[in-house]
């Protein structure tokens, strides 16, 4: 493997992506709260995002939309650092200065996503539970939890459910590596199209728009699996213990998908999509904007050549 995987450029991309994503998520965090509540609380009626947020604030207080912010930000920071580092490191090693293509971006995005999922899934399992702790659910079957923080959540999950529970939803997460892979493929392709072979830094408006378009397509295509992923991470679905873990996970995913369709029809698979699109598109657009600006500024400050950066 080329040493370009372990370069300053990969580190700059990773830090810029992490900082951009944390800032963007903080700004639009309440929208993610509304989306998650619609996904896991089956008895909550699908309503507009403002209506859901107003309902949450009325029932649980003004701080409720930001419940679980810290563990989510920690998970997001680690996750995006790993993903951006792997994506740009592998890309630099693979291309060695050559022009990329959509198929190459997709393959590299999938590889980076697999590494990211295997390393950071425990963080996402814990933050999903902390974010939903103390919520007032319409579904009476949901069991309440009592975690005092991130470390306590890790300890209780391991003690009560076993170490394997920290990787709940890993199979759906591995399937969902297509989400960031598709997102980065479209984003990079649109960047190349806008530049049309001329190395230049895109404007803020251009970056914001192509970031939003890329995320909107990726989210819509993979949303049903994202819903199942959230349910599994919440740990309120009992998987079979009499068969292999892989077979049990596949049956669980199939069962959850089928049950949701039977209860609510095909549209049930997309419950909360409006809130998700509103949150994820705005967050991704702002994240890419901040990422590009931070990376570009850092390269200039460090005196590194930005030619490779602009040709990506």
From TrEMBL:
Please report the record's description of how this protein sits within the membrane.
Answer: Multi-pass membrane protein
Is Transport there in the keyword field?
A: yes
The membrane-spanning stretches of this chain are 12-31, 68-86, 106-126, 171-190
InterPro entries listed in its UniProt record: MCP (IPR002067), MCP_dom_sf (IPR023395), MCP_transmembrane (IPR018108), Mito/Peroxisomal_Carrier (IPR052217)
Q: Where are the Solcar repeats?
A: 8-93, 100-193, 202-297
Record family assignment: Belongs to the mitochondrial carrier (TC 2.A.29) family.
Name of the protein this chain belongs to: Peroxisomal membrane protein PMP34
Upper taxonomic classification of the species?
A: Eukaryota, Metazoa, Chordata, Craniata, Vertebrata
């Amino acid at each position: 493997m080329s040493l370009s995987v372990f370069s300053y450029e990969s580190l700059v991309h990773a830090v810029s992506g992490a900082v951009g994503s944390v800032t963007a998520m903080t700004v639009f965090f309440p929208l993610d709260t509304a989306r998650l509540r619609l996904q896991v609380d089956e008895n909550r009626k699908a309503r507009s995002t403002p209506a859901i947020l107003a309902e949450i604030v009325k029932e649980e207080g003004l701080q409720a939309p930001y419940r679980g912010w810290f563990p989510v930000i920690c998970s997001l920071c680690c996750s995006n650092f790993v993903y951006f580092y792997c994506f740009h490191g592998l890309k630099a090693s693979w291309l060695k200065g050559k022009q990329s293509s959509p198929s190459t971006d997709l393959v590299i995005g999938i590889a980076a996503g697999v590494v990211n999922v295997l390393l950071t899934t425990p963080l996402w399992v814990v933050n999903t539970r902390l974010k939903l702790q103390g919520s007032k659910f319409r579904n009476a079957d949901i069991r309440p939890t009592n975690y005092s923080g991130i470390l306590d959540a890790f300890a209780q999950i391991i003690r009560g459910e076993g170490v394997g529970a920290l990787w709940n939803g890993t199979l759906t997460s591995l399937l969902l590596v297509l989400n960031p892979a598709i997102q980065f493929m479209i984003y990079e392709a649109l960047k190349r199209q806008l530049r049309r072979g001329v190395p230049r830094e895109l404007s803020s408006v251009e970056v914001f728009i192509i970031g939003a378009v890329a995320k909107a397509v990726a989210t819509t295509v993979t949303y049903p699996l994202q819903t199942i992923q959230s349910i599994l991470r919440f740990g309120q679905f009992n998987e079979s213990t009499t068969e292999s873990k892989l077979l049990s996970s596949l049956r669980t995913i199939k069962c959850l998908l089928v049950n949701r369709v039977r209860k609510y029809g095909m549209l049930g698979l997309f419950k909360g999509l409006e809130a998700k699109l509103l949150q994820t598109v705005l967050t991704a657009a702002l994240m890419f904007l901040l990422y590009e600006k931070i990376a570009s500024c850092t390269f200039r400050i460090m005196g590194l050549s930005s030619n490779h950066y602009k040709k990506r």
